[in-house]
Automatic annotation (TrEMBL), chain A:
Gene3D superfamilies, sorted: Calcium-transporting ATPase, cytoplasmic domain N (3.40.1110.10), Calcium-transporting ATPase, cytoplasmic transduction domain A (2.70.150.10), HAD superfamily/HAD-like (3.40.50.1000)
InterPro entries per UniProt: ATPase_P-typ_cyto_dom_N (IPR023299), ATPase_P-typ_P_site (IPR018303), ATPase_P-typ_TM_dom_sf (IPR023298), ATPase_P-typ_transduc_dom_A_sf (IPR008250), HAD-like_sf (IPR036412), HAD_sf (IPR023214), P-type_ATPase_IV (IPR006539), P-type_ATPase_N (IPR032631)
Location within or outside the cell: Endoplasmic reticulum membrane; Membrane
Source organism of the structure: Gouania willdenowi (Blunt-snouted clingfish)
UniProt EC number: 7.6.2.1
Full protein name: Phospholipid-transporting ATPase
């Protein structure tokens, strides 16, 4: 079974934003509903296709003129910016202004301009690269000069003829009309579009196939009708209408997409169908994704609370002011100044004005710098994650990429992981292990031994071999070029995306060697018994052919074997290339023949008088000339190989000539010379399974040597090269789960269908059982072996064949051709057609392919498990294989019970679910009663694994049943969904995410995981062998699965705890500062006066207290990386949002409230009834607040590096320097505070220093107070006992010390056993005492630096 | 005070440039640098708050704070201060009639005399303050209502004061000098202090009126337009004609006879212009300098305070006081800081003791419980 096809997935990969990317497209009323008509530009004098976008691209957002308004408009989409601008503008209203209006604008302008400059720079870079792209050259046919002339890309129009040369990049979506290739093929590399590195073949439009001379644009008079531009890379439908009125169908095989590179084709000519922004590549560009993290959502709630607090205190003060004024009545005191107009304001009016004034004064309560700071911190965090050496993979020279910059902290809060299996848990290096043919098992013991050897081999070594071998590199120019275009065409909007350059580079590196071709995959040790049989069989066949005996005389066992290998070899889409001429397909053409595409063609070919009818090439009705038959006769005469020695079996066969012997005898090359070449043939497969099978067949000397669209050449022992006429390829799709090829067998001349697919499907499609005893036996045995393979964790595929009679084939062909030519619902019709063909199959055998686990997968899974993460595996593999892989990677435990849900119908599913629900509940009760009376820990109780297959999953995802399914799934420790389609994968993720309200992470490597990755809160792509689609869609791209452990457990935890603490600190800081001003309102008649100079007020957040928190937010580590990895339980912290609970916001508010009271009232009483003036009094208060805030941060900082020290010293120095300069600069400038020489005088006052000493200490006393010590008493009273760890063992392990954890004493809910086992595992706490209930590791005051506190769930 | 553990990890000997594969492709390795910063392994100090580290901190704070507090308290107590309220709210008080009849519109001054007795002599220099209560000099609009440029002697600001001065900017078509509400509400009571000798003769005590303002205010911030000479000409000139603030009796150039203390650089004016932080405040009025080392500046005995009652405060329920005070290195009399230090120190000490007991108790218990294996 191959990987699920990419076809449907790319559509989804192209996000919704794609349409937005289309710029400047003229909206045109299109009455021809949904079609586009393209005429050649040479056709008419005036431009025939004027309304289509030209090829000029413009991805910039702004022009010089529009920059300012547009950028501002965009920035004001942020609510915070609007708020701050509103406040700043409010300052310009005289009655309410609080600050100097210009000064109040400063912070907003600063922040807006920083963003604007950043945007401008990005836009300029986009502009530059646009210009570069637009000015690339290509050859366009000029009707004036009647030749191809060089033109810039941007000048290309729809309807232009373009000549493309090898290694050129396509400037637009082009319909291929002519190719220099004799097969009228054109090879393209689509790595830039989908990351797949194998070459794709594109065909010249059928009606132009047989142009022998060069294509002349002037003779082209057809009209193309096709779909409107869309972003589906794998769909192109349309037809070409010739002058004669003939219609020919166009399909995606005829279309060359912009951004792809022409390979192996000297020259090609095509007509531009879609240009510029309407090309599929451009339509597929979606900008960076913006996700909002959970923490940010939580933060926004608290910002909202801040707004409420702001409104409340402003209203309170406004009422206070009204009352204050009211008490004076009509006698207006001298200090209550009239309004500038001299009018006397009523208390109510003043209160209303004051309300607005206070909103300005208290604006910092909603922290303007918070949003900026968070972004800065996140960028730093992303940088540090990027730099982590542990996340760097030396093999591929790639490291983790953070593609989404703003959800780093989500990594610390994951609860569910949805993982793909193939390529994610496993290496996706498929290795052929064993097979069964015609009911006989060939165990391939030697092969197993060889694999075991590889297992031991260092992976690095292995990579060296694959790199250092004979694999050549493409010309450097090419890779260079492709790299550049990758950068562009992947996403022209992607410049903001950090990863794009790296991806481009990686893609180009990848393309240098063929995928899926490590020696481990290539070298297969054949089973001697089978090898002997193959030899025997082929020599017999050779003999028979030589003596013109009918092939049917071969024993059915032997013919099955040979058919089996032929199927392995040809039933795929593998392209052969020879490394000497990179990417030049090996030309092994014996006869040129186009695939059967018309009924006439079919009749012509399959009538005995073929040679004669073929000769008159100019048949009346069509443009088609039967070129194939023309040339076919030339190769008719060929001599059998000298090497075809007679074996003893020859005598057994009677020799008589078969009259209808194949008219296409195979050609023999010199075998010796071929053998040399053989070793160097390279197979380019789309999926590793295909490659593995082809390599396996090659080990049996049954090698694929060439593939053309219409024929496959296979070399067989003794028989030499055989060309199979390839009539149809029914490609793999994930619904059918199989692929088929229809070939004409060169030896028997029969039309044979070879089908390869998942055993579950193939078994259903076999001929009814009553057909024959032998077949029955084969099926039975094969099924047994299949189960055996699956139990070994092998991926199984069944191989079957079917022989069609000519009548049957003709009948089917009729329908198939209809389907192919249909414009509406073609996919559906083709699908139906395929279903009709793939029936009544004859089973040949089955293969078992091994997919090795990646390094460190079981350990990672175990660690993530212990971290409280639920891991679900969603795979397209069959159940048994998946289950075995799950066991192998410790996802399932042999000790735990497994619930298997396999239902055939909805009804049975319902009952099954209900039953299992009951079971799981019973289980839960049992387990909980045995372990704990009131369990709070979800991950120790359920010892159940759930396995569900695709069909059942479909029922389970039904609206009515999803709740029940979830209930069952939740009660299980692990869930395994097999045989699931990509859509199902994303539905499962969506279901869990939406219903359980949990944080989900999806990890996968292939195109079939894209939808799942996009749905999850955090999508992780494995930049493995399956192309870049998953990476493109992901938020984080990892080289290996095992890196997930460090990414989540360490970086996720850090990012989360850093940001959570920083956000809380921000709220605290601003609230504390604002509260100082609020208290003052009680002493200034609620007049909105501030004792703090407005400069300090405005720059306090922006400058004085900004840096230390950034450093802490970036570098602080509550627990060291080693400990986090050693004790994955600590991850629970983030899952339960322990660092930032809603109540913590209020706790911080209360703390801020208290601290501001201290900071206000100590100076208040110290200066009460003195001659101190307003701003002289405000200066020490500002200083004290700064000290308190910084010391508070100091207490919150868990690790002090020199950067923390530096930033704090810098902050304090900055404050005093600024204050001294500011107070010395101008005696009259800073009205109204006019703080000339204030700070200088304060520094001479002993009182100032005395205040600076006592206030922060008093303010921080409650925070510094060891809650731990107090809670210890409580814990003691509760009867919790401590576990004493040996001091020597714990010396250097900075295990979690939870008294730092703010007010939440109970940080970790870890099971006692977990902790204990981790201790013993890591050789710490060797004499740790199993005290029972909670764990509380206490170490002695002198020797230990370490304390663990954990209230675990209790056993009693 | 806190346990610290250095977490410096030695740089492991990884070669930062990975060996390129088989000599092919000298693609620059993307391998991150192995630096302490990038790998987040910067040596760090981890303060861990455990009982063992917290307890000493408490004791240290307590031991430092309590002596400071005692020192401050003693210093504050040594300061002599005498305060007398002369608002005249009470029927019996001397200024009752003045207070009752007086308003901003009164043209003549009202005189009243208050007698008081100093129980103890004031030894060192005595500072004489006037104190106002319930006077919101920190009101937002009041604070803003001034023009610093004008007060700095700027000619253009003199004739065209800042908008902030509204509605005390122009009067009868002329710019007000000094403009604004602060200046307009200048405290204009005059106080004279007499020592009542035993024989009943009044002995006027010389009050120094210079040196009461900040040096920087007097010499930098406040300047008369066109120098100190001939102020009348400046404030009354043709081009620079100004009007006196509406509440003032005399124009600004008649505040004092002494040209060094007249106009904008009049120190009483400067002191007033420095707006008080809190609604109850005092402002330095005069200084009584110590004359000889043997005689106390103000010997104990009876004193008479002559007040020219010009400043109405009763309308807003204000109070006026006269304060005599000596000062120390830490300013005027204020026992608060001393008490605060003592309190905080004691709390810390007390907490330390309590925690020590708990810690000790717990420690023995846990030792007993946990060591059996």
């Amino acid at each position: 079974m191959t990987r699920e096809s990419r076809d449907t997935e790319i559509t989804k990969a192209a996000g919704a934003g794609a349409t937005a990317a289309v710029r400047g497209r003229k909206k045109r009323k299109n009455k021809e509903n949904k079609t586009r008509t393209v005429r050649a530009n040479t056709l008419l004098n005036d431009h025939p296709n004027p309304h289509y976008a030209n090829n000029k691209i413009k991805t910039t957002k702004y022009t010089l003129l529009s920059f300012l308004p547009k950028n501002l408009f965009e920035q004001f989409h942020r609510f915070a910016n609007v708020y701050f601008v509103f406040i700043a503008l409010l300052n310009f209203v005289p009655v309410v202004n609080a600050f100097q209006p210009e000064l109040a604008l400063a912070p907003v302008v600063f922040i807006l301009s920083v963003t604007a400059i950043k945007d401008l720079w990005e836009d300029y870079r986009r502009h530059r690269s646009d210009t570069e792209i637009n000015h690339m050259d290509c050859l366009v046919y000029s009707s004036m000069e009647r030749r191809y002339v060089e033109k810039y890309w941007k000048e290309v129009q729809v309807g232009d003829f373009i000549r493309l040369r090898c290694n050129e990049i396509l400037p637009a979506d082009v319909l291929l009309l002519s190719s220099s290739d004799p097969d009228r093929l054109c090879h393209i590399e689509t790595a830039t579009l989908d990351g797949e590195t194998n070459l794709k073949q594109r065909q010249v439009v059928r009606s132009f196939l047989d142009l022998d001379c060069e294509f002349d644009p002037f003779k082209y008079h057809s009209v193309i009708e096709c779909e409107k531009p869309n972003n589906d890379l794998n769909r192109f439908r349309g037809y070409i209408v010739h002058r004669s009125g003939r219609r020919d169908v166009l399909c995606k095989e005829n279309l060359l997409l912009r951004g792809c590179t022409i390979r192996n084709t000297e020259e090609a000519v095509g007509i531009v169908i879609y240009a510029g922004h309407e090309t599929k590549a451009m339509l597929n560009n979606n900008g960076p994704r913006y996700k909002r993290s959970k923490l940010e959502r939580q933060m926004n709630v608290d910002v909202f609370w801040c707004v409420i607090i702001l409104l409340v205190i402003c209203s309170f003060a406004a009422v206070g002011h009204g009352l204050w004024m009211f008490q004076y009545g009509d006698k207006r005191p001298v200090f209550d100044v009239l309004s500038p107009q001299g009018t006397n304001l009523s208390p109510i009016m003043s209160a209303i004005y004051l309300f607005l004034t206070l909103i300005i004064v208290f604006q910092v309560l909603i922290p303007i710098s918070l949003f900026v700071s968070i972004e800065i911190v996140k960028i730093c965090q992303v940088y540090l994650i990027h730099q982590d050496m542990d996340l760097y993979d030396e093999e591929t020279d790639s490291h983790l990429q953070c593609r989404a910059l703003n959800i780093t902290e989500d990594l610390g809060q994951m609860q569910y992981i949805f993982s793909d299996k193939t390529g994610t848990l496993t290496e996706n290096k498929m290795v052929f292990r064993r097979c069964t043919v015609a009911g006989v098992e060939y165990s391939h013991d030697a092969n197993a031994r060889r694999l075991a050897m590889y297992q031991e081999m260092d992976s690095e070594e292995e990579e060296c071999m694959s790199h250092g071998g004979t694999l050549p590199r493409r010309e450097s120019v090419t890779s260079h070029q492709s790299a550049r275009v990758v950068l562009r065409s992947q996403s022209t909007k992607s410049h903001r995306r950090t990863g794009s350059r790296a991806e481009a580079k990686r893609a180009s590196i990848l393309s240098k060697h063929t995928a899926f071709s490590s020696p481990m995959e290539k070298d297969i040790t054949p089973d001697p018994q089978l090898l002997y049989k193959v030899n025997e069989c082929s020599s017999q066949m050779d003999f028979m052919r030589f003596h013109s005996q009918p092939m049917s005389q071969l024993s059915s066992d032997l013919s099955d074997i040979i058919d089996f290998f032929i199927a392995l070899t040809i039933c795929n889409t593998v392209v052969v290339s020879s490394p000497n001429q990179p990417r030049h397909k090996v030309r092994m053409r014996f006869e040129l023949k186009s695939p059967v595409k018309t009924i006439e063609d079919f009749i012509k070919r399959f009538t005995p008088s073929r040679l004669t009818s073929g000769s008159n090439s100019s048949s009346s009705s069509s443009l088609i000339t039967n070129r194939s038959s023309n040339k076919g006769c030339s190769s008719l005469l060929s001599s059998p190989s000298a090497e075809s020695t007679l074996t003893k079996l020859h005598e057994e066969q009677s020799s008589h000539l078969e009259p209808t012997f194949s008219p296409v005898p195979p050609c023999y090359d010199g075998k010796a010379s071929w053998n040399l070449e053989e070793g160097e043939l390279r197979y380019e497969a789309e999926s590793p399974d295909e490659a593995a099978l082809v390599y396996a067949a090659r080990a049996y000397k049954c090698s694929l040597v060439g593939r053309l669209p219409d024929q496959v050449t296979v070399e067989l022992p003794h028989l030499g090269k055989l060309s199979f006429e390839l009539l149809h390829t029914l490609g793999f799709d994930s619904t059918r789960k199989r692929m088929s090829v229809v070939v004409k067998h060169p030896l028997t001349d029969q039309i044979t269908v070879y089908t390869k697919g998942a055993d579950s499907v193939i078994m259903d499609l076999l001929k009814p059982l009553d057909t024959g005893k032998r077949q029955k036996k084969i099926i039975c045995r094969t099924q047994n072996y299949l189960n055996l393979y699956a139990a070994d964790g092998l991926r199984t595929l069944c191989i079957a064949k079917k022989i069609l009679s000519k009548e049957e084939y003709a009948c089917w062909l009729q329908c198939h051709l209809e389907a192919e030519t249909a414009i509406q619902g073609r996919e559906e019709l083709l699908f139906q057609s395929a279903l009709r063909l793939e029936t009544n199959l004859q089973l040949l055998g089955a293969t078992g392919v091994e997919d090795r686990l990646q390094d460190g997968v079981p350990e990672t899974v175990a660690a993530l498990r212990r971290a409280g993460l639920q891991i679900w595996v969603l795979t397209g593999d069959k159940q048994e294989t998946a289950v075995n892989i799950a066991y192998a990677c410790k996802l399932l435990d042999p000790e735990e019970e497994m619930l298997t849900l396999n239902a055939d119908s909805q009804v049975s599913h319902v009952s099954l679910v209900c039953k299992s629900l009951g079971l799981s509940k019973k289980k839960q009760i049992n387990s909980s009663s045995s372990l704990s009376s009131h369990n709070t820990s979800p991950f120790l109780v359920h010892r159940l694994g759930l396995v569900i297959d695709g069909r059942t999953l479909a029922y389970a995802l039904d609206k009515t049943l999803e709740d029940k399914f979830l209930e069952v799934a939740r009660s299980c420790r692990s869930v395994l969904c097999c045989r699931s389609t990509p859509l199902q994968k994303s539905m499962v993720v969506k279901l869990v995410r939406n219903k359980l309200k949990v944080m989900t992470l999806a990890i996968g490597d292939g195109a079939n995981d894209v939808s799942m990755i996009q749905v999850a809160d955090v999508g992780v792509g494995i930049s493995g062998q399956e192309g870049m689609q998953a990476v493109m869609a992901s938020d984080f791209a990892l080289p290996r699965f095992r890196y997930l452990q460090k990414l989540l457990l360490v970086h996720g935890h850090w990012c989360y705890s850093r940001l959570a603490n920083m956000i809380l600190y921000f709220f605290y800081k601003n609230a504390m500062f604002v509260a100082l001003l609020f208290w003052y309102q009680f002493y200034c008649g609620f007049s909105g006066s501030a004792m703090i100079d407005q400069w300090y007020l405005i720059f306090f957040n922006l400058m004085f207290s900004a840096f230390p928190q950034l450093v802490t937010g970036t570098l602080d580590k509550d627990v060291s990386a080693e400990t986090l990895q050693r004790l994955p339980q600590l991850y629970v912290n983030g899952q339960n949002s322990e660092e930032y609970k809603p109540y913590m916001f209020w706790m911080n508010m209360i703390d801020a409230f208290y601290q501001s009271l201290v900071c206000f009232f100590i100076p208040y009483f110290a200066y009460a009834d003195s001659d101190v003036d307003l701003f002289t009094w405000g200066t020490p208060i500002t200083t004290l607040a700064l000290f308190t805030i910084l010391l508070h941060l100091g207490i919150e900082t868990k690790t002090w590096t020199w950067m923390n020290w530096l930033s704090i010293i810098f902050s304090i120095t900055l404050f005093f320097t600024v204050a001294l300069c500011y107070n010395a600069s101008c005696p009259t400038c800073f009205s109204p505070s006019n703080p000339y020489w204030t700070m200088q005088r304060q520094l001479q006052e002993p009182l100032f220093y005395l205040l600076c000493l006592i206030t922060p200490v008093t303010a921080l006393l409650p925070r510094y107070m060891p809650f731990r010590v107090l809670t210890r008493i409580i814990l003691q009273h509760r009867g919790l006992r401590g576990v004493r760890a040996s001091a020597t063992g714990v010396q250097n392990v900075d295990i979690y010390n939870s008294q730092r954890a703010k007010f939440s004493e109970v940080k970790l809910k870890l099971g006692f056993f977990c902790l204990c086992s981790s201790f013993t595992l890591n050789n710490i706490g060797t004499n740790s005492h199993r005290g029972g209930v909670g764990t509380h590791t206490h170490t002695h005051a002198h020797t230990d630096s370490v304390h663990i506190r954990a209230r675990a769930w209790r056993l009693e | 005070m806190m346990a610290s553990s250095y977490n410096a990890k030695e740089e492991d000997g990884h070669h930062s440039g990975s060996a390129s594969h088989g000599g092919a492709a000298v693609v620059k390795s993307k391998k991150p640098d192995n630096t302490a910063f990038k790998q987040q392994r910067l040596p760090a100090w981890q303060p861990i708050l455990t009982a063992g580290t917290v307890l000493p901190a408490f004791f240290v704070i307590g031991l430092i704070f309590i002596p400071i507090g005692i020192g401050l308290y003693v210093t504050s107590n040594n300061i002599k201060e005498f305060e007398i309220d002369y608002t005249g709210v009470d029927m019996n008080s001397a200024c009752y009639s003045c207070a009752k009849n007086f308003s901003w519109n009164s043209t003549t001054s009202c005189l009243c005399t208050v007698d008081f007795t100093l129980e103890q002599p004031f030894e060192s220099n005595v500072f004489m303050y006037y104190g106002l209560s319930n006077f919101y000099q920190n009101h937002r609009r009041y604070v803003k209502s001034r023009d610093d440029s004008q007060l700095n002697g700027d000619m253009s600001a003199l004739t065209n004061p800042s908008k902030e001065c509204e509605p005390y900017r122009m009067s009868e078509g002329l710019p007000i000098a000094p403009c604004g509400a602060i200046a307009n509400s200048l405290f204009n009571d005059t106080l004279k202090l007499y020592y009542l000798e035993a024989n009943g003769t009044r002995n006027e005590i010389p009050l120094v009126k210079k040196g009461i303002a900040w040096w920087t205010d007097k010499h930098v911030k406040f300047r008369n337009p066109g120098g100190n000479a001939n102020l009348t000409a400046v404030f009354q000139g043709n081009l620079t004609a100004t009007s006196k603030p509406v509440n003032w009796r005399n124009p600004v150039y008649e505040l004092d006879q002494d040209p060094e203390n007249n106009g904008f650089i009049n120190e009483d004016f400067i002191v007033w212009m420095r707006t008080a932080a809190l609604p109850t405040f005092r402002k330095l009025y005069r200084i009584i300098q110590k004359k000889s080392s043997t005689m106390p500046t103000l010997p104990s005995g009876k004193y008479v305070l002559d007040i020219t009652y010009n400043y109405p405060v009763l309308s807003f329920d204000g109070r006026k006081r006269m304060i005599l005070s000596t000062i120390s290195w830490m300013g005027g009399k204020n026992p608060f800081l001393g008490i605060a230090y003592i309190t905080v120190g004691s709390i810390c000490f007390f907490l330390g003791v309590v925690l020590l007991i708990i810690h000790h108790k717990y420690d023995t218990r846990s030792t007993g419980a946990d060591i059996p294996n």
